[in-house]
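input
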Amino acid sequence: MKIDFFFKVIALLFIFFFTHQVLYSSEIFSVQVGAFSSEKHTQNLIKTLKDRGIKCSVHETEGLYKVYCGEFSQETQAYALKSELYSLGYDKVFIVSKSVQPSQDTTTVDSSTKQVIQRETIPPIKERTDVKPLEHVREEPGPHAAVLLDRVVAVVNKEVITWSELYKMMEHEATDQVKSLKEEERMNIFKDNEAFFLGKLIDLRLQIQEAKRLGLGVTPEEMTEAIENIKKKYSLTDNALRESLEKEGLTFEEYRKRLSEQITVSKLVSQQIRSKIVISDEEVKKYMEENKESPGDSETLRLRQIFFKRQENDADKKAIEDRADLIIQKLKEGEDFSALAKEYSEDPSRRLGGDLGFMKKNHLAKEFIDVLNTMKTGDFSIPFWSEKGLHIVKLEEKISAQSIDEVRKDVRNQLAEDRFSEIYKNWIKGIRENAYIEIRL
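output
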């Protein structure tokens, strides 16, 4: 009987001290998920988390809207929520704490009153110093602002791919034309192409995982050499390289990581595929015979053009010819061909100043060849019609016909690339089939 009474007393004391500590702890712990200068982004994040059953609130400090999730008297409870958020793809969350000044009348305060007291009497929330702060969640102006609302879009074996990784990749690979669009238009284009680029990102992640499995990697010396070669190739100083990366929305550390991944994948592909491709002399000979590849008919030209689409209406055709005559007059007065191409041409090459790149002369249409036969390097043509429309071309560069050995070399390289593409496609397919891939778009 005495023993039973003793345990009851101990139990009552435990309950008293435990509940007192919970109700009147000197600190309340929460998990910070984001900090934004835009209230709209903040509310979007809160709604997203609410849909997942996680209640969050906003605290505005120093012009930033900070998102805090949960209010816990015990730090272990905050760590549990932090782990849950991490599993949802929020990998930069961290714990914050706030001091609580208890009410004078501690015997009659219910939970709802206690919450009011906390909100009215607590000092500003302080960030814990024993965890790494969330450095990248402050909203930055420009094209990368939208990547802040992060989530997992794919799981590749034991690794996750986040929404921000996907959109940074799309930003990096976007053409200048897409980059120049308004943010809403650009994001709509990205949205339409999410699946395609996510497939590329999954393939990249699978290859890096395969390289690690095979013990392939990049040494510090290789990284240093690669960066020095890039600086030398583009005549860049350290500061110029960093400034160029900042314009692309990349930190130097992110650039090193991407470069390391590229070198690693290159090593892997070389070991697993390229080193095993052999093109025989017989294959080269057969291709040349079937495609009539021979020296003397493979002169290479670099061209620019200003192009107008063909119109069926004679009046419209006359208007096009008048416009072309105006351009010819401007060219004769010394205006730049590429600038005029950007202003007037209706061909996609206009954004590149009409640059069509290098082209084999014998691959061009007869109308082009007839005009180009009368031109020297640096000349521009008179306007001429083809079945597609009206052209004005400029001959930028001319490379002489190849020797027989050069032709064979080009054919061998082309056959090797064709075979590589086929083998690589099957190889990636095999890696995918043996991997765990979950798409969450």
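quick obs: The chain has a mean pLDDT of 79.
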